[in-house]
Amino acid sequence: MSRKLLEVENLQAFYDLSHVLQGVSISVMEGTVLSVLGRNGAGKTTLLNSIMAVLKKREGRILYAGKEIQSLPAYKIASLGIAYVPETRGIFPSLTVKENLEIAARKSVGTTNRETWNLDRVYQLFPQLKDRAQNGGAQLSGGEQQMLSIARALMTNPDLLILDEPTEGLAPRIVQEIESFLTELKKEGLTMLLVEQNLSFATSLADQIAVLGKGQIKWVGSPQQFMKEMEIQHTWLGV
Q1: Exposed/middle/buried for 35, CB within 10 Å: 0-12, 13-18, 19+?
Q2: Is 9 exposed, middle or buried (0-12, 13-18, 19+ CB in 10 A)?
Q3: 177: exposed, middle or buried (Cβ count in 10 Å: 0-12, 13-18, 19+)
Q4: SS3 60
Q5: Residue 234 and residue 217: Cα distance in Å, rounded?
Q6: Which domain does 84 fall in, by range?
Q7: How far apart, in whole angstroms, are the C-alpha atoms of residue 227 and residue 179?
Q8: Rounded to two decimals, what is the model's pTM?
Q9: How does pLDDT run across 199-213, given as a tens digit for each residue?
Q10: Which residues neighbour 199 within 8 Å (Cβ) at sequence distance 6 or greater?
Q11: Angle CA(234)–CA(235)–CA(239) in degrees, nearest 5?
C-alpha cells in the first residue's frame, strides 16, 4: 500500500507584505505524479520554493516521509532525497555537461529498489547529453539545458522529483522528448510533483491534478475528472 510521501498542510507564504499562499494543502502519494496547474501569478513557483525552503517566510506544516521538514534549511531538505528542477534550470554555465552531472552525484538515501542513477544510465536516457559531454553549460540549447537540469537532479538519486515548468519555452519536438523521459521515470515508480501550464503535458503524466488559483487550492481530482471540469478550466486556467 502506497503512503503519502509529501504532505503540505495549511501552507502560508509571503513575499514582503504580499500574502501569496493562503492555506494550501496538498499531498503526493509515493510512486505517483501530482500536477499543479494554474495561471501565471497563482503561486505555483512559490509553493515549490516554500517546500524546498528557498522561500523562508512561510508558515504551516510540510512533511516528507512522515517527518516535518518545514524548519530545515534547503540543503538538508535536498539531502533527504528530494531533487528540485527549478524554472531557471540552475545549471552551471562555466562547467561542462559531464562536470554538471558529476558534481551532483549522490547515493540514494531512500529504501526503494530502483536502479541507481550514474553517468552511464543518465547518458542512456539522454543520449544528446553524452554527445555534448565536454561542452559547457552555456553552449547548450534551451532543450539541452532542460535535459541537463533533469539529468543532474536524477544524479542525486531522489525519491521525489519536483519540476517547475519543465516545458516552458521549448519547441514541440523537445516537449515530446521531455514527456517521454518523464514517462519512463514514472514507469519506474519515481514520485513527482510537477508544476506546468501545458495542459496536455501535465494531464498525460499526472495521476492527480491540483488547480491553484489566487494562492489557494481550488480543485483536486483525477486527470479524467479534470478534463470534464470545463468551468474549473475556464475560471482558473483561462482555457
Answers
A1: buried
A2: middle
A3: middle
A4: strand
A5: 15
A6: 4-237
A7: 19
A8: 0.93
A9: 999 999 999 999 999
A10: 37, 233, 237, 239
A11: 25
Return d(Cα 112, Cα 178) in angstroms, integer: 24
Quick one: which of 20, 55, 58 has its CA closest to 41? 20
User: Which residue carries 542525486 as its cell?
Assistant: 156
pLDDT at position 111 is 56
Q: What is the pLDDT of residue 156?
A: 95
Query: What is the distance between the alpha carbons of residues 23 and 201, in angstroms, rounded to a whole number?
Result: 27
- What separation in angstroms does the CA of 43 have from each of 12, 90, 120, 163? 11, 20, 37, 14
- Measured CA to CA in angstroms, residue 70 lies from 115, 131, 202, 238 at distances of 29, 40, 27, 33
Q: Residues 55-101: pLDDT tens digits? A: 988 999 999 999 999 999 999 999 999 999 998 888 999 999 999 99
The model's confidence at residue 127, banded by pLDDT at 50, 70 and 90, is: very high
Total structural domains within the chain: 1
Paired sense of beta strands 58-64 and 4-15, if any: antiparallel
Q: How far apart are the C-alpha atoms of 146 and 152, rounded to whole Å?
A: 10
Residue 209 belongs to domain with CATH number: 3.40.50.300
111: number of Cβ within 10 Å: 8
- Cell readout for 44 is 505555483
- Evaluate whether 66 touches 85 at the Cβ level (below 8 Å): no
Map residue 84 onto helix, strand or coil.
strand
Distance of CA 227 to the CA centre of its chain: 22
